[in-house]
Amino acid sequence: MERVQKSASDVEGRRNLAGERGGRFGLRPGGGAAGEGGYAEWLHAMRLVARLPAGVPQHFRKKLWSTLADRHLSARGVDWPAAERACFRGTAQPDDAELGAQILKDLHRTGCSLFCGAEGRENQAMLRRVLLAYARWNKEVGYCQGFNMLAAIILEVMDKSESDSLKASRIYFFLMKAKTNNFYVQVMIYLVEAVLPEGYFADDLRGLSADMAAFRDLLRLRLPRLAHHMDQLQRASDAGGGVEPPLPDVFTMQWFLTLYATWLPRESLLRIWDLVLLDGNEVLLLTALAIWDLLQERILSARTADEYYSCMGGGVRAVWEAGDALVARVVALGSVPELPRLRSLHRYRVAPPEAPTQPPLYQPPLHTAMQTMTKKGLRLFYSEDEGDSSDDGNKLALATLAPLQMIPRRDDRLAAGDRLSLDIGALKRQYARLRERQRQAHVILAAACARHAAVGVSTSPTSLTVNNLLLGKSAIVSSRGRRLGPPPGSVPPTRQTDTKVKSEHHNRGKRNDTISWKEEQNLKSLSRRNSVKWKDIKREKSSREGSKSFNRPR
Amino acid sequence: MAKKTYDLLFKLLLIGDSGVGKTCILFRFSDNHFTTTFISTIGIDFKIKTVELRGKKIKLQIWDTAGQERFHTITTSYYRGAMGIMLVYDITNEKTFDDIVKWLRNIDEHANEDVEKMILGNKCDMEEKRAVSRERGEAIAREHGIRFMETSAKANVNIERAFNELAEAILDKTAGGREPDADHARIAVERRPSRAQHQRACCT
């Protein structure tokens, strides 16, 4: 306890060194003056400490993590003693068998020496209890490979936080067993549910796919030379077949799932974890940025995708050796203000098409407005009263995406696979419908773009909208060579600054927010007359209906 | 431009249920090393090894996947580029054998049509715990017209043979396998000409 108090005063000293105004500081947030203000002050102080060159003292880490976890649970109003009983029930639960089997397979595969050999037996048992408890706590997530590593690191922190003499005593062991289990599970809960984005570990890891895509965009913004090089290598290796997945993915996937557990030396790793737990998941992407930045020169010298993969072996060593220097880079990078925007774009897109009867399993929390639009699909453009909750950029994105998103890839291999009906007749009907919608969207977009031109706004698409499922694919072209998809330039993306968006805002007052079909019909402007007419399309369609039914190139 | 240290590049993929020993097979092949304390594969990983076949240096880029079901969607994007796929089950675990059918369907859905496949029954050193007979393994392989082998990463049985056979089968398919002209082969394999032509034909 003395040591802990000493560390507390140590921390306080550091905090004063950091130039913060003096104030009470203790192990527990708020000290005497408990409440929200006290906690906020404590959190702020801890964030500063985590950013100092030495980071959070090792023996203080456990307290920090468990306080954060505690706080999360009490804020959620969880009755922990009851939850604890449910999680740690001695008797087997119906779902346990399958969960337990996977957990059992992974207990010795944590890559952590604490869980190997005879000595590791006890630790493995503990790990198993905790992983099972978490799986019972959150049945939707259950157990995901990689949790074993996360839990192993939490155990290690716990282990290091206690003095050896204390550990040696038997009474301590029995006393601590329950406490330890609690600590574990609570930190796991906090990490998975409060810190990491939703869908990282459950439901086909959709949240993770979205984050990987968002990160590729971020890379293009922050390290454009590197990102461009990687994109080029991918394309060169691709040879038009869509065979080469994005080059950063194999690594970012591991990093985001294990929180860098296998890539950083322990001390640096725990410092990154401190930052993640205190500041949230954007630290994960910042760390990835820092790593790519570190490896930039090495990767730029690779001339093929294959050379890139070969050179990453040396990259692992370079990152490992960078250690604290890497943490300093992460701290220096600060924050990612563009992240929420990038994420919402990709979260929205990565989701495979849902069967109409099923409610969406994954709900992006912030963009309910966009979501309802998705559900309504193109109907959005036919009604006047549709919400004006999003800007025109989003509408353009929706117009291009709503139909495109549902279109099966050329070879009919959808990620959703089994869930899709394989009835060819139904597919054909669906196809015809989609083609029709696509055509409608094209008309609407053409009209909208023409209108933009009429009011003096340039027509080039502005937002960073990109359907990452369509990246690298050629545009959909009809049999007569006419482009059916979104307006030229919106896929693949053109990276531009946000100035366009601003100029759009200035022009907002001049026109309606909603692109409405009815409005388009009533508008007798020159641009309207010059654009492709809905009626024309209808007529054209009906005249062709008899002759061909299904002519999409395959 | 520096000289290439290999003549051909083959991309292989290892799939199968969790815990059947995919990573162990890969480590035995690439590092000739076996340990049970590997880290479970998270998402996807790869190893690179260069072998020599028929006087050609062949670089193998071998992709290893996580077996847990929820990773399937995320790992399928790596199927398409694979020229050879090793489908692994555990001879001591019947379920992993039953799932072979599911994995084959996955290959059909996501991999290249002309991908070379091979089924491996791993852990054949654990004869006393065997749950799937060799005959059943052979039967399912025959049924699908796929090569089959029983292996043991632990006892180093058939591991190198399996990779060599798969690589040879791919080599046979490439232009380089039939023609002695190595320069031509280099381009041919990396570009997969039949596929590219097929696609171009589709689009017009």
Automatic annotation (TrEMBL), chain A:
A GO CC annotation given for this chain: endoplasmic reticulum
Natural source organism: Eumeta variegata (Bagworm moth)
SMART domains linked to this entry: TBC
Entries under InterPro entries matching the protein: Rab-GAP-TBC_dom, Rab-GAP_TBC_sf, Tbc1d30_C
Biased composition range(s): Basic and acidic residues: 1-23, 497-522, 533-547
Pfam families reported in the protein's UniProt record: DUF4682 (PF15733), RabGAP-TBC (PF00566)
UniProt name for this protein: TBC1 domain family member 30
Residue stretches making up the Rab-GAP TBC domain: 55-280
Region (Disordered) location: 1-30, 478-554
Domain of life, source organism: Eukaryota
From TrEMBL, chain B:
Domain of life of the organism encoding this protein: Eukaryota
The protein's name: Ras-related protein Rab-10
Keywords assigned by UniProt, alphabetized: GTP-binding, Lipoprotein, Membrane, Nucleotide-binding, Prenylation
Chief subcellular location: membrane
PROSITE patterns: RAB, RAS, RHO
Organism this protein belongs to: Eumeta variegata
UniProt-annotated location(s): Endomembrane system
InterPro entries per record: P-loop_NTPase, Small_GTP-bd, Small_GTPase, Small_GTPase_Rab
Cited Pfam families: Ras
Membrane topology annotation: Lipid-anchor
Keyword Nucleotide-binding tagged: yes
Gene Ontology cellular component terms for the protein in this record: cytoplasm; endomembrane system
SUPFAM superfamilies per record: P-loop containing nucleoside triphosphate hydrolases
Gene Ontology MF terms: GTP binding; GTPase activity
Family: Belongs to the small GTPase superfamily. Rab family.
